[in-house]
Structures are given as structure tokens and as C-alpha cells.
Design goal:
Strand content: 15-25%
Number of domains: 1
CATH topology: Rossmann fold
CATH architecture: 3-Layer(aba) Sandwich
Structural class: alpha/beta
CATH class: Alpha Beta
Distance between the termini: 13 Å
Radius of gyration: 20 Å
């Protein structure tokens, strides 16, 4: 029997679909429609549809503290919990293009995500939903305590069920904020006895425990593959849990460190601003994530941990803009990050999971590393030890 393998994705790594209207048509094929990412153009009609699907708002208590999310579509959920189809081939339309286009799009967007790794695991005998288990989640809402606790409950139940059936301890592979969620789960939802009994090892791939300045850009300016549409998506990206979870924090940065320079307004946005400024995304971060940061950063020394860090990539560490309504005109780079997360943030994983072996994979970016042969060959070795 194989050691059961569990896969926790990062931001954007779970396929989100409408369970009442799951399908769309593309090139005469009926396909599952990923509400987060698909090939439909940025027309007025499409943008309005995307906004309607992705709308979320914050929920407040009587003291004006943000306590979770409200006003979202309950029919949009993560696809294929416990299977693997919700964490790979995240833009199903691409599968019907010719190989040249698919290769170009994979190089640019890494839409296959865990697919290549999963294929290799299947080649050595793993069976999806049996001992190869995907754990997708709604990355927009995971900071809501009720939603997160339900997700953690499912993780715990699945680990117990699969390890008992396989009679072997679990291996948990995470990418990006999936590693933060795993540490949160291990520190809050289970105890040392559970860890010793059920977990063989964890594999953390490019985990941003210290956050990233790119998240500030997404929350304050907006984020999109199309630069002139930054402002169109700002009201949405500034509220998503996966963005808030990766705001820079004091695990890796000093309070005076500047992440954005607003030239026309003569303002520097520093770590201190995030901790103190009356700004809605900053407040949401302080109310929904900061109270748990000490728990998340508390060291664990009883888990065999493999830490994978992509490096030697230009990674934004400071943005220069005219004001908050304009796109950056200049960027300062960390030359040793993974293209999205700075090296200081990636390295902090070693302080949290102290019983670690670290693998550096040069010239691979934040998501593309999942398809890298060096990483996959090492994972095959680790799961068959």
C-alpha cells in the first residue's frame, strides 16, 4: 500500500464552479466552468458576470470588528473535494487547444497546476480519491472562521480515514498559502498525538509565511493579467482571503520597511501602516488574520519537513506609483525570490518547521516549480521512502 498523499493548493489553485450551473461550452465541447479563471475575453458582459460571481463582502460584529464574510454566492464552491480534478487543469478550455497553444499557455499561466505531479504519482501506482487526495477550498473566503473550521474538519476526517485504510501515515504536499493553512491546521485544530499518529512528513513549496509586497499591490491598486483593468477588479481583490493572508508581516519585515511609494502624494506605505492605518484591507487583515499569526509562527519540531524554495528570480519588493489609482511606473526587485514571494518571506518556513531539509530549485517561479523535474523526482523519492 502507498502512503496516502494529500495536496493543498495555494491562492487560485482550486477550481471554483457553480454547482447549479457547472458547465459551459467551448469549441463545441461541454466543459466545467471555472468561475475564477476561464478564456472568455474581457468584454463588458464578461466582466460584469465575473464580478457577480466573485462578489464578497465583510461581516461585522456590534463593535465594528470584521468577523468573516457575507453576501457571496453559496452556489460557487470548490470542485472535487478529495479528488484531484479541482486542483489541476484549472482552465478546462485549454485542454481542447492544439499542443503548441497549450504549451505556451502552460509556460505563461501554469494552468495545469498539480497535473504533471499527479500524473507521475499515478504512474507509480497512486489512485485518485483513494490514496491521492486533493483538498481544494474557496481561497476568497477561507479567513471566515466558519468556512475555515469546516475545511479543517474535512482535512482531519480525510487524513484519519485514508491513513486507517492504507495503514500508513500521510504525506501532505502544499503550495503557497496552502502551507500557511496546513500550519494553521496543525497548530489549532489537531494536537501532537494526532501529528505523531497520522503524519509521516509534510512538503512545503514556496510558502509565504512573511507575506509579499505584491499582495499590497493587489489590494490597493488591483490585479489582473491586463494592466489597464487593475481598477476594475480592485473592489474584489482587496477583500479576498488569499490576498489578505499574504500581506507583509513582521515575521520577515521591519516596521519602517516601505513597500509602495506614492510620488504625487509624498507617501510611503510601510509595514507600520498595515498594522495601524485605517484602511479597509488593512483592517480586514488585522481582524481576520493577525490574531492568529503568533499561532501560525509557533515552531514545530516533530514533523519531518521538506521545504522547497524557488530562487534566482526577479521578485518585486517595492512599487513606485504616482498615486493609488495608477499602475506602478517603477519596481525595485529582490533578485533571489520566486518571482512572486521575496526570499525573506520564503526562508521563514525554516524557522517554523525546524526539523527540515531545504531544497532550492533555481530559475523556477512561484507556480511553475510544480512541474519541475527536480521537484517531482524528489517528491517521488520522498513518498516512496
Amino acid at each position: 500500500m502507498n502512503k496516502p498523499v494529500f495536496l493543498i493548493p495555494g491562492f487560485g489553485g482550486s477550481l471554483l464552479y457553480n454547482k447549479k450551473k457547472p458547465y459551459n461550452y467551448y469549441l463545441n465541447h461541454k466543459i466545467l466552468s471555472n468561475k475564477w479563471a476561464n478564456v472568455y475575453p474581457f468584454t463588458f458582459k464578461y466582466i460584469n458576470r465575473w464580478k457577480k460571481d466573485m462578489t464578497v463582502d465583510f461581516k461585522y460584529d456590534e463593535n465594528n470588528n470584521i468577523i468573516g464574510y457575507t453576501d457571496y454566492n453559496n452556489d460557487i464552491v470548490a470542485y472535487d473535494m478529495y479528488g484531484i480534478d479541482g486542483i489541476q487543469n484549472l482552465v478546462p478550455e485549454f485542454n481542447y487547444l492544439n499542443d503548441n497553444y497549450k504549451n505556451i499557455l502552460e509556460d505563461q499561466f501554469h494552468y495545469q497546476y498539480y497535473n504533471i505531479l499527479n500524473d507521475r504519482l499515478i504512474d507509480i501506482g497512486y489512485v485518485p480519491s483513494k490514496d491521492l487526495i486533493g483538498l481544494p477550498y474557496d481561497f476568497r473566503l477561507i479567513l471566515d472562521p466558519e468556512i475555515r473550521n469546516k475545511y479543517f474538519k474535512r482535512i482531519k476526517k480525510s487524513i484519519i480515514n485514508r491513513t486507517d485504510k492504507c495503514n500508513k501515515k500521510a504525506i501532505i504536499i502544499t503550495h503557497s498559502i496552502g502551507g500557511i493553512l496546513l500550519k494553521w491546521f496543525l497548530s489549532e485544530y489537531v494536537d501532537e498525538e494526532f501529528i505523531n499518529r497520522y503524519i509521516d512528513k509534510v512538503i512545503l513549496i514556496n510558502t509565504p509565511f512573511g507575506g509579499t509586497p505584491v499582495a499590497l499591490k493587489a489590494a490597493l491598486i488591483g490585479e489582473s493579467y491586463v494592466p489597464f483593468l487593475y481598477s476594475v477588479f480592485l473592489d474584489y481583490t482587496s477583500k479576498f482571503s488569499g490576498v489578505l493572508m499574504t500581506f507583509p508581516n513582521n515575521l520577515s519585515y521591519d516596521y519602517e520597511e516601505s513597500f509602495m511609494v506614492l510620488k504625487d502624494e509624498n507617501i510611503n506605505i510601510t509595514l507600520q501602516n498595515i498594522y495601524e492605518q485605517d484602511n479597509l484591507p488593512f483592517k480586514a487583515w488585522r481582524d481576520l488574520y493577525l490574531p492568529y499569526l503568533d499561532l501560525i509562527k509557533s515552531p514545530l519540531d516533530n514533523i519531518d519537513t521538506k521545504i522547497i524554495i524557488s530562487n534566482e528570480n526577479q521578485t518585486a519588493k517595492q512599487f513606485y506609483t504616482k498615486n493609488l489609482s495608477s499602475t506602478p511606473y517603477k519596481i525595485d526587485y529582490d533578485l533571489n525570490g520566486d518571482g512572486l514571494i521575496t526570499s525573506t518571506s520564503l526562508e521563514y518556513a525554516k524557522k517554523i518547521f525546524t526539523n527540515n531539509e531545504t531544497l532550492y530549485v533555481k530559475n523556477t517561479d512561484h507556480t511553475g516549480v510544480l512541474s519541475n523535474d527536480i521537484l517531482i523526482n524528489n517528491i517521488i523519492k520522498w513518498v516512496t521512502d
